[in-house]
Amino acid sequence: MARYRGPKQKIARRFKEPIFGPSSALERKPYGPGEHGRSRFTRKSEYAIQLDEKQKAKYTYGLLERQFRNLYEKATRQKGVTGEVLLQLLESRLDNVVYRMGFARTRRQARQLTSHRHVVVNGQVVNIPSYHVKPGDVISIRPKSRNLDLVNETLESYSTSKYKWLETDKKSKTGKFLNYPVMEEIPENINVQLIIELYSK
Prior knowledge:
single chain; alpha+beta; five-stranded antiparallel β-sheet; 5 strands
């Protein structure tokens, strides 16, 4: 399965945000990577700002370029505000839902859990990270996989009231996708309007 395999901390420093989770490198060097990372005089064009926002969203949710573009086009065909629909489509990906429910520390781990057949949706094993979860769907860890240290350690520190659109039962390692989140509920720092402007050119 194709995915970004490059240096994570370099990307986090580029956007000055811990988009792959807590970053000690970003804490030590809170500026961009490379020779001109410390420069205070870098002025970006409007296009560069829009492109950066799209790239940040793409890396945050772990999508490749074509996947992200296809998701944007799908959002434009649906009813509602395109930017909010795009975020809802990103949030309803199975790998993201597994991560949000506290079964994995990062989206990368959630993607691996899913592709290795540890995740069950409505009683059926689903090993496609890009599978879109619908309101009412029940997501759980496969019975044979419920003793995985990764899952148990992550759930220990997980707050079940963290996300209003999800419901998680730590004991049974089961969760429910209640509804699509509204834009204000999504914690990611992504300006979707800039992405819409970029793709509208």
